Amino acid sequence: MSIRTLTLDRPAVHPEKLGFFRFGDIDQWRVLTNDAGEWHTLSAPDFEALLRGEIGPDHAEYRGLQRKGFIRADLDLEALADKVRRKKQWMGQGPHLAVVISTLRCNQDCKYCHASRTNMDRVDTDMSLDTAKKVVDHAMRTPSPYLNFEFQGGEPTVNMDVIKFIVDYSREKNKYEKKILDHSLVTNMTYMNKENADWIMDNNVLICTSLDGPAEVHNFNRTWQKGSNAYENVIKWIKHFNARYTEMGRDPELWHVDALMTTTKKSIEHWREIIDLYVELGIRNIHLRPLNPFGFANKTWRAIGYSQTEYLEFYEQCLDYILELNAQGVQICEGTASIFLKKMLTPYDPNFVDIRSPVGSGTGQMAYNYDGSVYPSDEGRMISAMGDELFRLGSVDDLSMEEAMQHPTVRSLAVSSMLDTLPQCSSCWNAPYCGVRPLHNYMHTGDLFGQRPNTFKCVEHMGISSALIRRLANDTDGTVETTFRRWVVDRPRITDS
After folding, report:
1. How many CB atoms are located within 10 Å of the residue 126 CB?
2. What is the C-alpha to C-alpha distance for residues 45 and 477, in angstroms, rounded to an integer?
3. Are 314 and 293 found together in one domain?
4. Which of 437, 442, 480, 102 is nearest to 290 (CA)?
5. Of 64, 87, 110, which residue constitutes the final position of a domain?
6. What phi and psi values does residue 141 have, to the nearest 5 degrees?
7. How many domains does the chain divide into?
8. 442-495 pLDDT, tens per residue?
9. How far, in Å, are 256, 437, 441, 467 from residue 444 at the CA level?
């Protein structure tokens, strides 16, 4: 019997000269990242020289590597630790997003609906004013200094009385709580009327709608039960709101309708037309959102779904076109990219509840169903509507905010999304920018941890981060970085305290 030995051609590593970092490959580059969110790309020969301790002060890459904490020489450990603290400053603040389901009734029949909507005659799925009061009382017990009540459905404007009550009651209550308070409305616009539109604008309620693209795409995805043209109605009200904001003298960069699209198989072949429509309407932000595996989308995936490769090819096509438009002076941003870029290019984390570690389910958000049931996120509510009550935490009738935040389910979601401790995730170069979606894992695999790194979200997040770094690494004249840095500038619209 002979014994075979395997010899790997690896450079000798000099750990005493290196800071802590993770690394991986993007095209011809080796990308390095650390817990402070810093990143740096090196050629393969330069990376091997770094490991051998051969990159000294006279090397072209030395200053950048040392400043970012990848080289130990003259390392300011306290400054690096401060960067890490700033990236995680949201931890322990508590839920800042309260998703409120004012009703499950909806006048549309969308192919990918994940909200488990009911027909318009189902008034029993409307939230009562009594329940709405308890929702506000519960949500405002969060220790977070900021709170946003986000109205969803169904179509939330079907139960406008509850929306008005929650806005008024929460503001009255906030005279004592002294939080930074926002209210936002996610609506399909097809139930909108002038009276409600005026009230929304007069009360500074932020408004977001769904716009999947031109009529061919939007009407295919989002069927209106009464047989009318859903596309024409959403366009009409987007223009109405934006025109009224202008008449009110409000800054169009801050005050406009936010529109979200959901990517289906139909969208992929119309990527350019989708972006052109957003530009034509003056919409400054487009989120190229993939499908979620909940509700109707889980049943219709074969008809409207796609592979991970197809989605990422679509995303990169769109990203390049958006960058091209920006170079021509058109101000439009890809929303998912801006979340990742804030982690890559700024000292802060945007605290987007679905892309953070740990995930924001129960610690960054709570969802309140029409009947007062409390969930750690809206996805938990969706799973409940599909017949699985695992993620129901309790009810506003008998569950305190403290009990909700400390619930065993919330703890499990935090543990299963802590990238620093998860095998494969902890050593992945994308860990500083990524976020695990345990509820997605649960839907795909039956457990919270999933099968990393093969889950749809893992591949999606890795693909987006790689696309952004690839364009920054090849940005010879600085135009891409200039555009990206413009995307990460935040100017708050409302400070309602």
Report:
1. 21
2. 24
3. yes
4. 437
5. 87
6. -80, 0
7. 2
8. 888 888 988 777 788 899 999 999 999 999 999 999 999 999 999 998 766 654
9. 36, 11, 5, 25
